[in-house]
Amino acid sequence: MAKVDFYILSAAESSARWQFACRLVEKAYRLNNTVHVHTTEHGAASRLDDLLWTWRDGSFVPHSLADTTAAERPPVTIGYTDDHLQAGCDLLINLSDEVPATISPFPRVAEIVTSDDNDRRLSRARYARYREQGHTLDTHKL
């Protein structure tokens, strides 16, 4: 079973969620972890791909979209379908509104939640789903 961490942000804007995702990706990468970020659709995956190049001066996180063919897989991948889930990664960051179909290959999962009412409602449903599946849950208010 995975350890699932819910990071509850005080900000309501979706941009706060994206910025925190970049921070989390960078921190995990610097700790030599492999990361897969699961988004809702191709546009969101592309947006995060672009943001990881520009979000902070001096930051470098080698990454690519999961649907890109590369000779060697970078430490960070970004996908938007269950087929893109990169088994063998140390961390799954879920930016989707639903729990991915298969999270068992991931020892850790991160959920990022803004203070937006709809975002919180959707996160409560994901929390309940993870609990039903028997995962270890923890909440961090930021």
UniProtKB/TrEMBL annotation:
Q: Which Gene3D superfamilies match?
A: DNA polymerase III subunit chi
GO process terms (BP)? DNA replication; positive regulation of DNA-templated DNA replication initiation
| Top-rank taxon | Bacteria
What's an example of a GO molecular-function annotation for this chain? DNA binding
- One matching Pfam family is DNA_pol3_chi
Q: What is this protein called?
A: DNA polymerase III subunit chi
State the organism named in the record.
Answer: Woeseia oceani
